[in-house]
Design a protein that fits this description.
65% helix, alpha+beta, single chain, 399 residues, two-stranded antiparallel ribbon
């Protein structure tokens, strides 16, 4: 039993014993008062009727009544005595109230009533208080149990997150190692061949150029991997500010313009009213630049890359549509995953790490937006970005 509940029961039991003891004391005092009153009455009667002393004593002691009850016709005699006594009471104006007021028994009766009432009230108060404490203790226990369950759930969530992060880290290291193996192997082979004595000067120059290309590729991969790890570990914090979307688009288009021009691909930006919305201009521009770079990389010469902007009630939509090789429907759900590249020959022949679209998704979603791809018209791919007009909580998705 709870200690508080036990103390409440003990207090109630002690109070009950106290009330019983006080009641017994009052009863004893009342009997003494009655005894003394009978003694006064008996003294007065025996003084008036000394010759009837024994009979008066028998009446006061109750022996006369016992003798009368044991004899034949006692009931009729008692009725006669009672009737006579009541007649005399009525004759001399002695009522029940006078009988009560004639002594001090009423005081003891009043004291007993007050004592019993106070005892009952105190018992009720103790029970109410005990019930309140029990309810409070029950609520407290329930609250603590709920908090314990919440802590247990949070601990499980943290454990699951740590396990997932550990698995992601292992996967990331494996993927990065795999991505670095190819250029390193090619660089090692070029170095070994260039170091051989059987090569002409022209052949040595070709191998040196090949080594330079592989080193450049390694630098690009390391830059991408650095951005990836910094973004996933929270080291990159997007600076979301109200900025011009037209300026963000202009920066991205101007960065890819020369590459598109050299490949004879036209980048057409449809005219639109500028929109100021909360976004990280630098990283959003990197996302758009990555999409434009892919469009130029996987589109044939003489085609066009269209950039369109439209507004909805709460979002701004940016579409980048090319006329390139397109993306098979079976790969649409995978292209935004880390280190995922398509199976088309053009994709395999082109340089790439399979990280750009993954980074694009992470950056857009951290700004509360979305990114998806649909087939272009009549061919190619149409990447669709949505950015909120007001800053909202970012969308959290699994990698």
């Amino acid at each position: 039993m709870d200690r508080r509940k036990l103390s409440g029961v003990a207090l109630a039991f002690g109070l009950l014993l106290l009330v019983l003891a006080l009641g017994a004391g009052l009863l004893t005092a009342a009997w003494k008062v009655m005894y003394e009153a009978d003694a006064i009455k008996m003294g007065m009667l025996t003084e008036q009727y000394p010759q009837e002393e024994a009979q008066i004593a028998a009446v006061f002691n109750g022996k006369q009544s016992e003798t009368a009850l044991s004899s034949e016709g006692s009931s009729a005699e008692n009725d006669r005595y009672q009737s006579e006594g009541i007649r005399l009471f009525q004759k001399y104006g002695y009522t029940l109230g006078d009988s009560i007021r004639s002594g001090i028994m009423w005081r003891y009766a009043l004291a007993a009533a007050v004592l019993l009432t106070a005892g009952v009230l105190l018992e009720v108060l103790i029970l109410i208080r005990s019930a309140g404490r029990t309810k409070a203790a029950s609520d407290r226990a329930e609250f603590l149990e709920q908090r314990l369950q919440e802590s247990h759930v949070r601990a499980e969530q943290v454990e699951e997150q740590l396990r997932r992060e550990e698995q992601d880290t292992k996967s990331l290291i494996t993927d990065i190692s795999h991505q670095l193996k190819t250029p390193l192997a090619s660089l090692k082979m070029s170095y070994e061949l260039a170091d051989s004595t059987g090569l002409s000067l022209e052949e040595r120059r070709e191998f040196v150029e090949k080594e330079r290309e592989e080193v450049t590729k390694l630098e690009s991969l390391l830059t991408i991997f650095t951005q990836l790890t910094r973004l996933e570990t929270g080291m990159i914090h997007l600076q979301i500010e109200n900025s011009s979307l037209k300026e963000t688009l202009t920066h991205a288009v101007s960065s890819i313009y020369m590459k598109a021009y050299e490949k004879h691909i036209d980048i057409a930006v449809e005219e639109f009213c500028d929109v100021t919305l909360p976004h990280d201009s630098r990283w959003t521009s990197e996302v758009i630049l990555n999409l434009l770079d892919n469009a130029v990389k996987y589109s044939p010469a003489g085609t066009e890359v269209s950039v369109r902007v439209s507004e909805l009630a709460s979002y701004v939509i940016v579409e980048i549509e090319d006329q390139g090789i397109g993306i098979p429907a079976s790969q649409v759900s995978d292209i935004f995953k880390r280190f995922c590249r398509g199976d088309a020959p053009e994709v395999k022949a082109a340089d790439g790490s399979g990280v750009g679209l993954y980074l694009a998704r992470k950056i857009i979603e951290q700004q509360g937006g979305t990114i998806c791809v649909k087939p272009g018209t009549p061919c190619g791919s149409n990447f669709i970005l949505t950015l909120p007009k007001r800053q909202i909580s970012p969308v959290t998705q699994a990698s």
